[in-house]
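Morning - NAP inputs below, output right after.
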Amino acid sequence: MAAETRTVIVTGATSGLGLRCAGTLAASGGWTVLLAARDPAKLAAAAERIEMDIGRRCPTLKLDLASLTSIRKAGEECARRLDSGELPPLRALVNNAGLQVHGPMQRTGDGFELTFGVNHLGTFLFTQLVLPLFVSPARVVVVTSGTHDPADDGRIAPPLAIDATALALPGEDDARRLSGMKRYTTSKLANILFAYELARRHPELSVAAFDPGPTPDTGLVRTAPALVRGLLASTMVRRVLGLAGIQLNTVAGSGDAMARLVFDEVGWSASGRHYQAKGGRLVERRSSALSYDAALAAKLWGDSEGLTGVVPQPTSSVGPDRHDAA
Ligand SMILES: NC(=O)c1ccc[n+]([C@@H]2O[C@H](COP(=O)([O-])OP(=O)(O)OC[C@H]3O[C@@H](n4cnc5c(N)ncnc54)[C@H](OP(=O)(O)O)[C@@H]3O)[C@@H](O)[C@H]2O)c1
């Protein structure tokens, strides 16, 4: 097995697709996988589970994407561990962490609506803090969802207009009007707009947007009503969906496809592409028409900087000489 000469950070590595992706990356050899998530006990359990499989323990990082303070601390911690040589050079970031919030609207400690705050703003800020730590060539994967596309899986709850301030700081009336699913699909559209804008602003990076496809058996719908969770878990319902041509993926298939975007270097020579897991395969496909709106993406980027307190940086900040590149 190759020596672990490169670091990849996987956010949301304690459950579902992130845990599978992290385990597959760790088993692939050559990568030190930094498991990042909000709950230290779950992080320890994830590290232990992967260690049982591959005989090596992954390092962990506490990162709560619902807290600007926690994200900034995590960014500083990454810089310290990379600078000290405790971690090998940083070559990849998998922005996988995400949630759906069903039921009454919730807010982060900073006052942002929770879904948009975690899925988009938290991911945006963490990526900005990590950018200067990369050694080229580096890859960023942003996990999106086919539900962002009203012409695809997003028919049920098409996303809202992308106005970062209104989405981050909705009034109580808006909060009552909006379903958890609409907040989710909107945050996933924001993820794709962010991925494409990151690719435009940082041509030295290889950015991939990734849709795992409908993948039951993760923790994503944990706050959905019991009836919905029951239906999604039902073998009969899954069979009917299959007969209707709706292909459900497995956690292993989609998690491994996510990992391949890093260790197999799928599409590293391209940037700003959108991939989807289909069964165990990884296919490149177009995302929604709106996701290619560059003016909308640039506005979202600027508004997100304002909301998270990011100081605008020159477009190319990846440090090729940060370490002796491996
Ligand atoms: N499953 C699907 O059908 C599907 C389809 C399309 C896209 N996706 C996307 O795939 C990604 C992974 O979802 P999943 O299905 O694997 O769900 P999951 O099992 O619930 O995993 C989500 C991960 O994100 C973490 N997370 C949640 N809130 C966080 C926060 N505030 N700070 C840091 N980490 C946080 C969770 O940590 P905790 O365990 O501590 O909550 C968990 O590790 C998400 O971005 C989701 O939108 C999933």
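Note: Confidence is low (pLDDT under 50) at residues 320-326.

O.
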